[in-house]
Amino acid sequence: MSTGRALLAELIGPAFTARLGAGADLVRSGVNSGDLVRLALLLEERYGVALSAHDLEELRTVDGIEALVDRLEAGGAVRSAADAAPIQSD
Amino acid sequence: MAWMGQLIERCRQRFPETVAVIDGEREVTFAQLEDRTARLASALLARGIRKGDRVGILARNRLEVIESYFALGRIGAAFVPINHTSVQREMLDIVQRCRVSAVMGEADLLPMVAEAKTPLYAFEDREYAQWTETQERAALPNVEITDLMAILHTSATTGQSKGVMVDYRSLRSMATGFLADVAPEPGMVFFNCFQLCHGALVQPFIYMVRGATIVVQRGFTAQGCLEELERTRTTHLWVVPEMLKFIMRSRNLDSTDVSSLRQVAYAAAPLPLGLLREAHQKLRCGFRQIYGMTEGGGPMATLGPEEHAVALAPGAKPDLVVPAGRVICGTSMRICSESGDPLPPREIGEVCVRGDGVMLGYWENPAATSEVIRDGWLRTGDLGYLDEAGYAYLVGRLKEMIMRSGQQVFPVEVEKVLLEHPAIAEAGVVGIADPDWGETPVAFLVVKPGSAVTADEVNAFLVDRLASYKRPSRLEFVQELPRGMAGKLLRRVLKERAMERAMAEVGA
After folding, report:
1. Does the beta-carbon distance from B250 to A50 stay under 8 Å?
2. Chain A residues contacting B, CB < 8 Å?
3. A62-73 average pLDDT score
4. 3-state secondary structure B376-428
5. Which residues of chain B are under the pLDDT cut of 70?
6. Which pLDDT tens digit goes with each residue over B11-39?
7. CA B432 from centroid of its chain's CA atoms
8. What is the C-alpha to C-alpha distance for residues A70 and A60, in angstroms, rounded to an integer?
9. Residue B336, CB half-sphere, CA atoms under 13 Å: how many?
10. B338: distance to nearest CA of chain A, Å?
11. Amino acid A52: pLDDT
12. Computed over its alpha carbons, how large is the radius of gyration of chain A?
């Protein structure tokens, strides 16, 4: 199982994950949108990065998850938590 | 015109240039929203939608949903929101039972209800854009305050969803009562994270009375919420506690400018003390709890920022019970015994409410209505007590209902679907605590003699038959279910077993 599928499987189980088509819309295939919320947080924890809403648009399909994981493994996240400085507010 | 028409006209008069709705890059002012909804109402009239009709709304959160609710309110046609995460048969059941005249919604979702053969109007179509921009404004019908405003569906104890009928009087009562007690300040930017098909939809319409800008997003993610909160300078965030938990976990939190945030308002579940204190420390804002129920018309009681002080004080005990709040102006609350007699303070019974906010009843289901409305009092199904000052404390539930991240799941409904599987003889569903969702359903199954089925097969069977939030988080196969003398399922015993198994796994 690919890394992307394996991470999804941690949340929704391997059997359900294995049944999902690579390009099928995850929510329409029966995945709870809340599990995609958790997936985004899991990716942040595993790769030590802060993901943007733009990054998360890829999490609609298994293909999209794998593409994002590939980018994260290559160090290509939009923002890194280590680089971001807290914004000073009044 | 009744409340919806009055509301948008009044907002046009008082706050014409204030932004009414932010949906991503799109913004409309109150003056624009009044004009767009008048034109949309006129277009719907021209297409045969009449006062007294019912129109389904099938979409994720977006500007057009708010516009549609207003436009239909200006005609006196009831909006019937359809949860876009439902499965097809749940959607068709609502469309057919309510005998809707049309369904408006998102183009990718509307095919789910095509089988019902009602007119479908997609928000993305050029036609919809014409309706809201160039349709000639027609004279709109008189709408009475007692006309039906909406049918809001909830899950059901009997396994079929029930349509909560609310009139314009309900929303007016909720709005005027809430605003009298809460008195929100001007200049609010209210980020609505609840689904607009949920009973909580009344809250943004209440804040609009004070000229609040309403922010909506297609779907909730912690990262998307934080980005939009910063971008729109959100002052008020409207969430379920689980959403707040996810926001606390996001790595974006520390680098997001949350200085605009004045208040987090939450509902549908209590906020665990640890989460309240963490969120207070990181967001540096006030908190408001809203105790509401779809059948009650919305917010029945509230606990304001000053009233959270006890829970936030240093040294507050970890097992401190935070009250749900005190009733809003215009709502009455009492605690009743099983026989319906009012109980004195500090005695535990069923929480009951009364007021103009309470629903008219369930759509075409007088039997179910008479079970929950007794002598004009709505039985909430919550167990609790009132103290001498009128604060309500919730201690449990009468109904066997599971609350998964703000959405109701009734065991009987899940069991009915499980029993549709040819290999399953008996099914018992209970809720167990879950760190992410508050509670999730767990199912115990007895397989028919001579049959065989795996958990994977049962899960695959459920995907098309139950909305994802209703599906059990785990399945346990057992030889028999615990039953009482008359064969009644002993859910308490099942619940204990489910918790033992969950704890054993954690310890393993």
Report:
1. yes
2. 13, 15-16, 19, 27, 29-38, 40-41, 44-45, 48-53, 55-56, 79, 81, 84-87, 89-90
3. 94
4. CEEEEEEEEEECCCCCEEEEEECCCCEEECCEEECHHHHHHHHCCCCCEEEEE
5. 1, 156-159, 507-508
6. 999 999 999 999 999 999 999 999 999 99
7. 21
8. 16
9. 21
10. 37
11. 93
12. 14
Structural tokens at position B305:
């920022």
Tokens coding B84: 């876009």
CB contact under 8 A, A79 and B437: no
Q: What SS3 class is residue A18? A: helix
Q: What's the complex ipTM?
A: 0.84
d(CA B57, CA B69): 9
Tell if the CB–CB gap between A40 and B437 is shorter than 8 Å: no
Q: Which amino acid, B95?
A: V
- Token readout for A2 is 């690919």
The tokens for A84 are 């971001």
pLDDT bucket at A88, cuts 50 / 70 / 90? very low
Segment A50-66, tens digit of pLDDT: 999 999 998 999 999 99
The first and second tokens of residue B157, run together, are: 């104890």
Q: Domains in chain B, please, with CATH?
A: 3-312 (3.40.50.12780), 331-397 (2.30.38.10), 401-507 (3.30.300.30)
Q: Which of B221, B235, B243 to mutate to test the interface with A (most CBs of A within 10 A)?
A: B221
Q: CA distances (Å), B121 to each of A1, B38, B96, B113, in order?
A: 41, 17, 17, 12
Instruction: Map tokens 């139950």 to a residue.
Output: B466
